[in-house]
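User: Hi! I have a protein structure encoded as tokens and I'd like to know what sequence might fold into it. I'm fairly new to this, so please keep things simple.
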């Protein structure tokens, strides 16, 4: 009986490791396709990503340094639709909402003082029937770059 439990646990661990690697690989690929939109900013190399389903959202809190100019870029596979994307300051005051800017998937932020900002990203519900059983789930990435004035 203990042998069966050990084999089951080992199988579960292998499946978990495989799906985690697959998810990470998917997110890396999504982020890589969006890198050209980061120019003329320099990508920091930090990948902030998660798997979201239709209607779900995620928040990321990041610290931005005074005197710097940043580009915050959201990225997802085309089949997820146009992401909803908002940024709030440390007092939860809305600083940016992409619906007010033609659904832009990035925003350039010049920081006057070092502060934490909350980046909220949401995947919309599909407006049409899915093709070929593509799930309404996928990688959503937030990339950050800084302006290099040198």
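Assistant: Happy to help. Inverse folding works backwards from shape to sequence: for each of the 150 positions I chose a residue that suits the local structure. Here it is:
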């Amino acid at each position: 009986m203990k042998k069966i439990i050990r084999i089951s646990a080992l199988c579960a661990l292998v499946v978990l490791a495989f799906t985690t690697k697959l998810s990470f690989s998917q997110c890396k690929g999504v982020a890589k396709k969006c890198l050209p939109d980061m120019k003329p900013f320099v990508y920091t190399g930090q990948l902030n990503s998660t798997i979201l389903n239709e209607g779900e959202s995620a928040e990321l809190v990041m610290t931005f340094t005074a005197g710097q100019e940043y580009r915050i870029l959201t990225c997802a596979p085309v089949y997820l639709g146009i992401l909803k994307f908002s940024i709030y300051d440390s007092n939860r005051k809305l600083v940016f909402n992409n619906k007010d800017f033609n659904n832009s998937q990035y925003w350039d932020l010049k920081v006057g003082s070092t502060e934490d900002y909350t980046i909220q990203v949401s995947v919309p519900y599909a407006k049409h029937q899915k093709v070929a059983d593509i799930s309404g789930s996928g990688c959503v990435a937030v990339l950050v770059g800084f302006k290099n004035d040198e």
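A useful reference point when you look it over: The two ends are 66 Å apart (CA to CA). Feel free to ask if any position seems puzzling.
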